[in-house]
Amino acid sequence: MINQKIKTPELFFLKDKLIGNQLVEKSQTIATTSDSYLDQQAIKKMDVRQKAYDVSCYLPVDEGTTGGLYFGITTIYPGKVGREYFMTKGHFHVNPNSAEYYWGIEGEGVLLLMDRSRNVTAEKVVPGSLHYIAGGIAHRMANTGDEPFVFAACWPADAGHQYEEIANHGFAKRLMDVNGVPTLI
Which CATH superfamily is domain 11-179 in? Predict the structure, then answer.
């Protein structure tokens, strides 16, 4: 019998964050997400340095690696621009066949989904809920609660991210606070 050493983990998933080596971490502020929101006058009254969300990703293989997987955790902070909830920028995948999983960890939010015909649907996200995002579907998350909204994602390393179409044309519907109720408009 050969005695083999058992490796110690180098990456930890601790409820609302990743800890380890080789993580890619980004923060988005109101300034860097401002073109996502309808009410540009409300943005002028805000501190544009305020964080909208943080992302921490583990990318163990080169981008484009067939069969590789990436993992990330995002925290969207509570807040609104006008009546619109803080949200991620949203994107399609460059590889239209690439699907993705999102799951809720902490807080509450809404997953917005839009197909290429610009039909929009939405799913409530809560701790423990699991959401399959089919290939060819644009997706973005919004925090609809009063606490940080934390969710995780797993996607193929060859998916690619295409943000330009959403930046230029937005989603066909917006998630707005209507008398305290998240509503697609």
Answer: Jelly Rolls (2.60.120.10)
